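Case study 2.
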Amino acid sequence: MSFLMASKTTTALTQSRQWGRIEVFPSAVAAIAGHAAMRCYGISGTAGRGLRDGFAELLRRENVDKGVDVVQSDEGLVIDVYVIVQYGIRISEVAHNLQETVKFEVERSVNVHVLKVNVNVQGVREERS
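Prediction:
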């Protein structure tokens, strides 16, 4: 069982089977990873790539896939997640938990090995009650 993906933007992961073909687009994998990230303790949300005027853009829940890049390598998927963390929580622990959660959810959902999950902390946000 192997998937192929040539580009990170529009080419689908393709798996041929006895009864036909399965295609999973990188945007679907990004959505899975983004929703997994949103469920992690200490994550305020996903962020747009890069900063605008020195500030990270917190993405709305329906756009969580915009804060995730998915790239196919020879050994598996490499996923970059851009997040904003909650103030006062140990960033290293949040990032490690995020890596494990995203890896597990993507591998469970798509059945493709995840080689790396890179966590890019774009900002820190104080949660309001």
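Confidence is low (pLDDT under 50) at residues 1-9.
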